[in-house]
Structure formats: C-alpha cells, structure tokens
Amino acid sequence: MSILIKDTTKEERLKIVLEALGMDAGGCEDYDESVVDDIYLDYIEGKKEIAQINRECSEKLAGTVH
Known about the structure:
It contains three helices and no strands. It has helices at 10-20, 33-44, 50-64.
C-alpha cells in the first residue's frame, strides 16, 4: 500500500499516522489531536509527504545533538 499523498485520501492519511503512532486502537475519534497536528498535519492535509516531514524532524534533532 502506498502512503504517498497522490495515492491516499485525507481520511486514509489520518489513519496511517494514527496507526504509526499507535493511536488507532480507540478509533479516529479518540486520537490526541495536538500530537498529530504538531508534527503530521501537513501530511494529513496533503501539503507535505510524510518522508519529508520525518526527514525535517530528524535534521532538527541532529542539529541539537552535541
């Protein structure tokens, strides 16, 4: 299954993120919106691929490690 924006709907992208974060057990209505919004909202909204978001987060973390 592809997780690319072009191959998924907004609802599917939300489910992909929730499953990856282990938040899917209670269904989509029970997720912690702040965690999803802070990091993955651009993916869910179809603005950035999840790989790009993950890469940007890794680069930020790498820049703070001494």
